[in-house]
Backbone:
C-alpha cells in the first residue's frame, strides 16, 4: 500500500503546532510518509512574531520520509490556502491526508486513514475519511460508520472526490435555496443550520472552504467514513485562534481511540442510520458545540 501524503496547514500558533507534530510523530507510519507543511503569512503586524516562531519551529522537524515546507509570501487566509494546497497535492498523489495546526491525533490515526483510503479507493459514494467523531457512544458492528456529512477536523480524500469540489457553489446552492426538504437534510434534520452558513458564504460575509466542500459532497449524495471513537482532539478552542473564543466545555481530555486489532473492520457502503440519529440527538443537546462548528466551518481561525 502506497501511503498518502500528509498536509499540515499552519498559521500563528507555535504551541499548538508543536502538539500536532508531536502527536503525528507517535504514529508508526509517519517515518514512511511524505509531509507537506503550508505556512500562511501574517495578515497584520500583531501576527508577525508568532508566524516567525512557527516557521522557525517547522524547519527543525524531522522523522518523516520527506518534508516540504511552503511559506506563503502573502496572507492567503485559511480557505484559500487549503483549497490551493489540497488541490495541488491531491492532483499529484491521487490521495491526501489533511490536518490543521490545532489537532492532536491518536497513534493509530495514519493507519486508519491510509487503510480506509485503500479500502474505499474505487467506491465513488465514499468521498471523505474523517478522523473525528463526536462525543457519542456509537454502537456498531464495525470500527467505523458512514454518515452523510463532511468534517474539517482531520480528514482524507481522493483526487476523484476532490474533483467534485465546487468552490463557486454554482449549482448546489441554487438547488438548496429552492427546496426546503433538501435544506432540512443539509441541516442534519434541523440539528444544525448549515444552510445559513451557505447564505453567508454566498453573500461574501464568510470565507469557508469547509461549508463549500460539504455542499459539493451533499449534492452528489456522498458519504464520509467516521471512526466509532474519535482519533482527533481539537485543542484550538482556547482563545488562541483569530475568532475562536476560549471555552472549557469541549472535551479536550477525551481519550483518543486506539484500535486493539491488527485489521480494521470497515462497513459496507450504506448510511448508518442509527449512528446518524445518535449524532443528531447529540448536536441538538450541545449549543456550545454548535457554536464551535460554526467557527470552524466559517473559516474564522485566521
Residues:
Amino acid at each position: 500500500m502506497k501511503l498518502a501524503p500528509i498536509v499540515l496547514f499552519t498559521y500563528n500558533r507555535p504551541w499548538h503546532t508543536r502538539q500536532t507534530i508531536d502527536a503525528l510523530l507517535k504514529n508508526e507510519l509517519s517515518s514512511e510518509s511524505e509531509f507537506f507543511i503550508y505556512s500562511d503569512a501574517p495578515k497584520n503586524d500583531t501576527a508577525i512574531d508568532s508566524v516567525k516562531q512557527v516557521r522557525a519551529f517547522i524547519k527543525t522537524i524531522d522523522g518523516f520520509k520527506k518534508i516540504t515546507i511552503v511559506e506563503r509570501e502573502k496572507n492567503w487566509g485559511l480557505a484559500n490556502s487549503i483549497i490551493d494546497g489540497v488541490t495541488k497535492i491531491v492532483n499529484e498523489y491521487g490521495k491526501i491526508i489533511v490536518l490543521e495546526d490545532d489537532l492532536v491525533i491518536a497513534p493509530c490515526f495514519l493507519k486508519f486513514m491510509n487503510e480506509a483510503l485503500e479500502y474505499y479507493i474505487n467506491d465513488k459514494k465514499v468521498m471523505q475519511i474523517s478522523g473525528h467523531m463526536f462525543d457519542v457512544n456509537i454502537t456498531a458492528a464495525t470500527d467505523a460508520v458512514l454518515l452523510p456529512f463532511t468534517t474539517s477536523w482531520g480528514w482524507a480524500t481522493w483526487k476523484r472526490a476532490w474533483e467534485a469540489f465546487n468552490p463557486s457553489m454554482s449549482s448546489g446552492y441554487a438547488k438548496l435555496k429552492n427546496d426546503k426538504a433538501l435544506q432540512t437534510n443539509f441541516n442534519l434534520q434541523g440539528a444544525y443550520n448549515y444552510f445559513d452558513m451557505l447564505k453567508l458564504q454566498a453573500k461574501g460575509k464568510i470565507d469557508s472552504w469547509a461549508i463549500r466542500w460539504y455542499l459539493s459532497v451533499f449534492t452528489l449524495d456522498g458519504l464520509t467514513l467516521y471512526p466509532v471513537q474519535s482519533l482527533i482532539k481539537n485543542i484550538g478552542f482556547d482563545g488562541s485562534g483569530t475568532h475562536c473564543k476560549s471555552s472549557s466545555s469541549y472535551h479536550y481530555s477525551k481519550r483518543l481511540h486506539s484500535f486493539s486489532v491488527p485489521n480494521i473492520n470497515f462497513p459496507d457502503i450504506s448510511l448508518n442510520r442509527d449512528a446518524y440519529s445518535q449524532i443528531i440527538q447529540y448536536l441538538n443537546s450541545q449549543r456550545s458545540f454548535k457554536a464551535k462548528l460554526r467557527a470552524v466551518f466559517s473559516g474564522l481561525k485566521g
In short: The chain has a mean pLDDT of 90. The longest strand covers residues 34-39.
